[in-house]
Amino acid sequence: QVQLVESGGGLVQAGGSLRLSCAASGPTFSSYYMGWFRQAPGKEREFVARINQSSGTTYADSVKGRFTISRDNAERTVYLQMKRLKPEETAVYYCAASVSYFAGPTPTGFDYWGQGTQVTVSS
Question: pLDDT tens digit string along 17-40?
């Protein structure tokens, strides 16, 4: 079992920044494919970013150039740095892990999920 615990959410004004963290359990964190998703009220969970075992990254088009995903294998933590946030990005942000070598940019590509952290962007 892999346990994921997100932190760093909160209230921020439009144009502001937040850094989310996700701490993972398990001795083989470096082998996990990690991702961030978000879900706004009444909407489906959507892909935000993912990072592979070699720190290769993929982003949703809507966040390219503003969000950065990174990982620290020694700390078993993945981060999501978010800049120039927009009100429509208000959502619960979830960290996810896949124990497979590859994980596609969809929720079904990941095996384990955190409880989520609320991000609210005020206009």
Answer: 999 999 999 779 999 999 999 999
